Amino acid sequence: MRPVEGESIIDVRGLRMRYGSTDVLKGVDFTVRSGEVVTLLGPNGAGKTTTIEILEGFRLPSDGTVTVLGADPAKGDEDWRARTGVVLQSWRDHARWTPRKLLAHLGRYYVPYSTPERSRPYGVEELIAMVGLAEQADQKIRTLSGGQRRRLDVAIGIIGRPELLFLDEPTAGFDPQARREFHELIQRLTELEETTVLLTTHDLSEAEKLADRILILAGGRIVADGSADELARQVAAEGQVRWSFDGQRHVQSTAEPTEFVWDLFTRHGRKITDLEVRRASLEDTYLTMVQQHESGRADQAATAFGPADAEAETEDAR
């Protein structure tokens, strides 16, 4: 059965994981709904991979409740697995196969799980074109470049037309053009295929571009949950408006950038040039939230992007 839009696809409550005497996850709570692209961010060692492996059913938690596609991942049957796709950080089997033969072989495993609502698998030629491997379709896998191999990893992860896709550092090794094509593929999967996506990445610009919602995991807990813009507002309530007027550069911090810009144009019209409105970037936000948590100041208001920066830039402009 196809998930209803807005339905909970992943539900995590009180998730804990202990290795020996070390608590890696200390009570993680979050929900992912149908059709969302959610990015899980966190410093190395925060527990991102552990969390994903639990959701995929590859690791048992120490405590807590985890539901994925309506089931406990640790007890998921073959039908449940056919509804999920996984793109690992690396995958190095079948070096003597070609992409076309490997995808055709793997696709056969999904045929019994095809439904009227979601036919499985993808056609091999369609999938090869989707991931940009048409020219390499009949090359030995061992001859593929790192970026081409990563495209094949993505194709393997989505061959079964998953309802839920896990992506672990999906664009590692991609050049800028391949990264852009991958982003377009994810947008296609979510918009046309109604695929829900949970990904981890160290590329914050990628997270900002792809994610409907961002989760920040630090110290074994989710310390932030929201869109990039919502998180930026938590860190820095004010935005910056930058503009030029009569040959001089100006910068103003304001809690209402839209209203401020409207007033500027009302007063000065086309004399305003080089207009730019900025809020804290996701990188600013992420680093500030993690630093606050690590220093024990998670509940204190902090500004990573504010008046002091504005004043400094004004001086530079002069």
Computed CA radius of gyration, to the nearest angstrom: 23 Å
Please indicate the count of domains: 2
Order of helices and strands: EEEHEHEHHHEHEHEEHEEHEHH
- Estimated helix fraction: 25-40%
Counting DSSP E segments of at least 2 residues, the number of strands comes to 12
Question: Could you say what the CATH architecture of the largest domain is?
Answer: 3-Layer(aba) Sandwich
Strand order of the largest sheet: 5-6-7-3-8-9
Weakly predicted, low-confidence segments: 298-318
Strand content: 25-35%
Overview of the structural elements:
The chain is an alpha/beta fold and 318 residues long. The chain folds into two domains: 8-226, P-loop containing nucleotide triphosphate hydrolases (Rossmann fold, 3-Layer(aba) Sandwich), CATH 3.40.50; 236-317, no CATH class. Helix content is 35%, strand content 25%. It contains eleven helices and twelve strands. It has helices spanning 48-56, 78-82, 99-107, 124-130, 146-158, 176-191, 204-210, 228-235, 257-268, 282-294, 307-317; strands spanning 8-19, 22-33, 37-41, 63-68, 84-87, 164-168, 196-200, 213-218, 221-226, 239-245, 248-254, 273-278. A six-stranded mixed beta sheet has the order 5-6-7-3-8-9, with helices on both faces. The chain has a three-stranded antiparallel beta sheet with strand order 2-1-4, covered by helices on one side. Helix 8 (228-235) crosses helix 10. 35% of the residues are buried.
